[in-house]
Amino acid sequence: MSDATREIEALIDLMARLPGLGPRSARRAVLHLIKKRGALMRPLADAMAGVAAAARECLNCGNIGTSDLCGICTSAKRQNGQLCVVEDVADLWAMERGQVFAGRYHVLGGTLSALDAVGPEELRIPKLRERVAREDITEVILALNATVDGQTTAHYIAEELEATGVAVTSLAQGVPVGGELDYLDDGTISAALKARKTF
Amino acid sequence: MSDATREIEALIDLMARLPGLGPRSARRAVLHLIKKRGALMRPLADAMAGVAAAARECLNCGNIGTSDLCGICTSAKRQNGQLCVVEDVADLWAMERGQVFAGRYHVLGGTLSALDAVGPEELRIPKLRERVAREDITEVILALNATVDGQTTAHYIAEELEATGVAVTSLAQGVPVGGELDYLDDGTISAALKARKTF
Ligand SMILES: [Zn+2]
Ligand SMILES: [Zn+2]
């Protein structure tokens, strides 16, 4: 087998590790890339290298950016006072696509899980307490997935924040039982945010 | 919106152009890559850049390699005399996975199509005639997809080669009607090759 094939096989193996791509679709994707190596493969490799070098987690909220504090945390255009708590950066992106939330975010990095031994310290929950105490927060909106672990985590955070006097609300109508934010359309997210209720 | 987000959005847009990935799965893939930027994203960017720089079509058979002649065309281990004609490099890869063919290949680069105005000159058919005349070929195995265009192309090539006296065979049992080689399991391809019949 030639070096060419080994190089291409190595690329296929790496591509197959992406979510949503198996070995077969990875092969098809690599072949497509090779056919379009000037128009697609080279720009994609460059973009990937650029993001790999620049991307980092925001030290404040856990969002992804290119500096220690993300664009949302540092933006003067975002409204102070409201913090939207999400499980994952994908959920933050889903909220942003809805374009109905003007406040800032807090990305937990997962949910509490007894099964997987994920406690509050494994998530960004201590940091959330710190932000609520330090920043001028009046409302914490829990935009967690409507799963058992998501709702367990929401209850835990609501209790944790009870003594601080901050209003704790959660996304309400529109989030189907068992549904995950990242799979909802923008309109559903928008409706759920507008109809949010006190937790 | 920060530069970070624009860089990441640009990467998502490029990823969404891969076959099998839509905007949503491209976002998930990019997020996964960012989370694993050391272990996966950086190696993937490097592998992609490497293949983009090195890959080229074999001048003889149309296979993908890193030099003017591919590893299969130049390998002394491949048997002379048999040429397997396929539509696409993906089909060549599928044949190779079966590990039952020891000869060499000829990649047409598509099929004849009246609808899309693809004639013999748009494919590697003149080159196939040249190889049959120049190389010591005794058998041309037509491993084309069992689609209308694939079979039209097979008939055309069989007629073209009739005067040369070379044996023209085609994959037989095992290839389902309307089936595409790249979607078949290795056992099916192996059976079809062994039971090949004179075209
Ligand atoms: Zn931030
Ligand atoms: Zn070749």
From TrEMBL, chains A, B:
UniProt keyword GTP-binding, yes or no:
no
Q: Which UniProt keywords apply?
A: DNA damage, DNA recombination, DNA repair, Metal-binding, Zinc, Zinc-finger
The terms under GO molecular function for this entry are: DNA binding; zinc ion binding
Q: Name one GO biological process term.
A: DNA recombination
PROSITE patterns assigned:
TOPRIM (PS50880)
Question: In which domain of life is the source organism classified?
Answer: Bacteria
Residues crossing the lipid bilayer are: none
Residues in Toprim domain copies: 81-176
> What Pfam families does the database record attribute to this sequence?
RecR_C, RecR_HhH, RecR_ZnF, Toprim_4
Q: Which InterPro entries match?
A: DNA_Rcmb_RecR, Rcmb_RecR, Rcmb_RecR_Znf, TOPRIM_dom, TOPRIM_RecR
Span of zinc fingers (C4-type): 58-73
Q: Which family does it belong to?
A: Belongs to the RecR family.
| Role, per record | May play a role in DNA repair. It seems to be involved in an RecBC-independent recombinational process of DNA repair. It may act with RecF and RecO.
NCBIfam families, sorted: recR
Q: What is this protein called?
A: Recombination protein RecR
